[in-house]
Amino acid sequence: MNAGYFFGTRVIVNPFFFLFLLAYALLGLFPQAVVAFAVLLTHELAHLVVAKGYGLEVPELELYPFGGVARVEGMSEADSHAISTMAVAGPLNNFFLAGLGILAERSGLLKSPLLVYFVDFNLGMAFFNFLPAMPLDGGLLYRLFLTRKIGYKKATAKMVKLGRSLGFLLASGSLLGAFMGMISPGLLWLALFLPVAAAREREGAMFTVWKDLAKKKEGLSKNGILSVEQLVVAESTSLKELLRHFLLGKYHLVMVADRDLEIRGILTEGEILAVCLRGDRLDRPVKELLDGHRPLAPGDG
Q: What Å distances lie between residue 191 and 95, 160, 173, 184, CA to CA?
């Protein structure tokens, strides 16, 4: 559901949120649900404000019961300082709000069980978001570290797997708690949120790769020259595995070699990404892409 716009960003409330409200209402915890959503909203808005401050475009922000997924344009080209600052803005906001809550409680300005919940939820959200799994803030920071070593797409794939694994662990903990008579709706919603949000990150990574290709074409047209990253792959290598080794900012030429290391042909990054655009299976070997056109020998031209 479209909830409106904030600083030019369309804010969407995911249908899961309404199920979350219903579950908490049935458990008599509706006020806690309202507090949780308010804390979540300020967390995501902190990210948004910092991203805008660095000139990054955020056309869409989708809110889930215990997290949000923002589509940030230009983040792959942004400097590491901008990305890391944007990532820590949310948890720092939670620490700040928790501090205000503690100050209000100890000064006697407010005395309410909801205030205790407010402080606990802020602290829990801050520490939880520092876990190294996508789409959590800690995952964003860890992906930034991995990108320098293995490339953006491969780093994103690794972080998505971590997000799914964490979701599985949380789901197992929720079921174990329910079996022991300790029902935790929040833990269950987190377990549901992480795999869904991780899938969105995976889709966004492919969009980033396509956008990067368009930027390379623009650079070639403007400058008349483009640096190339060469890869040599075995005929049996899958497209999925090959894509993980693509680096942003580099145009790739892929030499397909047989068992004797003889080059059977050369594929361009554009040809490979076109296969993805058509929706072909990504588990197929690169050897199949050489069929249908004359293999380009290294000395051709």
A: 23, 14, 9, 11
